[in-house]
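Researcher: I'd like a candidate sequence for this fold, 77 residues long. If you have to choose between options at a position, lean toward the conservative one.
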């Protein structure tokens, strides 16, 4: 059985994480506005490529991934 304080702390943690993600997005937007694409382009390519490599190494099928997403979404609601 879950305690309401556990739900509150989880909700607070999610909100804190959301705010941190938004702050990171704003910093990145400012960075790309103040630097030429030749500087940030290779950095972004490296990030995207590493994410793709990580996903490919996970050994999850698309169906397994979608199932995990559905379970996660049902718990968030």
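Model: Candidate sequence:
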């Amino acid at each position: 059985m879950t305690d309401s304080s556990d739900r509150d702390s989880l909700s607070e943690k999610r909100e804190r994480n959301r705010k941190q993600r938004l702050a990171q997005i704003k910093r990145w937007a400012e960075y790309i506005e103040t630097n030429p694409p030749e500087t940030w382009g290779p950095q972004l390519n490296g990030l995207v490529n590493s994410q793709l490599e990580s996903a490919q190494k996970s050994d999850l099928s698309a169906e397994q991934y979608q199932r995990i997403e559905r379970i996660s979404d049902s718990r968030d609601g």
